[in-house]
Amino acid sequence: MSRKKLVFSGVQPTGNLHLGNYLGALKNFVSLQNEMECMYCVVDLHALTTFQKPDVLRNNVLETVASFIATGLNPDKSIIFNQSSVSGHAQLAWILNCVSRIGWLNRMTQFKDKAGTDKEKASVGLYIYPNLMAADILLYKATHVPVGADQKQHLELSRDIAQKFNKDFNCKDFFPLPEPLIPKNVARVMSLRDGTKKMSKSEESDYSRINLKDSAEEINKKIKKAKSDSEQIPDNLKSLEKKPEALNLINIYSEISETTIEKVLNEMSGKEYSFLKTKLADLLISEITPVGKEIKKLLVDRSHLEEILKKGREKANFIAEENIKNIREKVGLI
Ligand code: AMP
Ligand code: TRP
After folding, report:
1. CA torsion through residues 50, 55, 60, 62, sign
2. Span 42-67, mean pLDDT?
3. Which domain holds residue 291?
4. Residues 323, 4: Cα–Cα separation, whole Å
5. 151 CB less than 6 Å from ligand 1?
6. How far is the CA of 264 from the centre of ligand 2 (A)?
7. pLDDT reported for residue 68
């Protein structure tokens, strides 16, 4: 069955967006908006799974919208909205909570990472978070989902849930099985301090990440201090297998300079990492600092950002209402 392609993705409003979000997700969002119909959602209900101060959350929602626009999303092309403003997300999430299996959720590695050692104290929301993510996608019958590699397992779960719903309610092909769109080299941008951990908003040291709002001096300092390797840059990828920090810098450089890894290694083999770092910092400064400046500028006019969300919510609701009506009918709700 051929169906209309629709892109959906979500970003949590939990503070500073960083280079991992930018390369792993946002840049893809922007290029996709010229190819397909796209919906980009600030997933504020997901953020509630760990405690958020209300004022901080409100602010972060607008900052995430500003980051979307600053990286090049166009609200006339893409539907930009916040999750809690369309009640269908919560309603479908409940229905899917009853389709999804405890055994499936028990396999989710992100829950294990986020809940830490004392799982009994994690919120129930954090545990069923992937079901809400499935609801986000299936509410619009989205077909393509651009995300970083850390979301791959959640997306597989969304497919399992879609499949089980279609089978349980005897409605083959009702929900499409959403396809992940994961970038190749930067699917997982790693921490600048520890190449075995992903770059993340929650890591304590700010030196571990490049934030979209960092100044040129901050970017320079962070790249200079980034862990690399005391040996020279090799001429092949294999030699980088046990050097995750060096590999991470080379991956980021390759992506930002739009040069293949092979070409980068060809160009740089035999040189010190300081050579790579100087070039990388320059490229990052010219790509990231204009985005940061634009975010700050956009945040001055909050009503403009609220207006973008309002328009997006209307368009999203329109699609959601029709689908929710059909979903309720399938399930037997009056
Ligand atoms: P989050 O901020 O966790 O809502 O993530 C928003 C998007 O950025 C998701 O698609 C993530 O997969 C992606 N993302 C987050 N951190 C990284 C990273 N270190 N490398 C690549 N993609 C990432
Ligand atoms: N769970 C995703 C993250 O933490 C955010 C998200 C929520 C999402 N709903 C989604 C991503 C739907 C893609 C599609 O990054």
Report:
1. positive
2. 98
3. 206-297
4. 14
5. yes
6. 32
7. 98
Report the alpha-carbon distance of residue 40 to residue 316 in Å, rounded: 10
* Confidence tier at 15 by pLDDT (50, 70, 90): confident
Whether 178 has a pLDDT exceeding 80, the answer reads yes
Q: Which residue from 78, 75, 87, 77 is spatially nearest to 308, judged by alpha carbons?
A: 75
Say whether 172 is catalytic: no
- The angle that helices 124-139 and 152-168 make with each other, rounded to 10 degrees, is 70
Q: Is 297 noted as a catalytic residue in this protein? A: no
Residues 100 and 248 both lie in one domain: no
pTM of this prediction? Answer: 0.96
Asked if 12 contacts 99 with a C-beta cutoff of 8 angstroms, the reply is no
24/152 Cα distance (integer angstroms): 12
Whether the per-residue pLDDT at 1 is higher than 70: the answer is no
Q: Is residue 167, in this structure, part of any structural domain at all?
A: yes
Three-class secondary structure of residue 235 per DSSP: coil
What residues does 121 pair with on adjacent strands? none
Name the domain count of the chain: 2
Rg (CA), the chain: 21
b/e string for 167-177 if b means 16 or more Cβ within 10 A?
eebeeeebbbb
Q: How far is Cα 113 from Cα 119, in angstroms, rounded to an integer?
A: 10
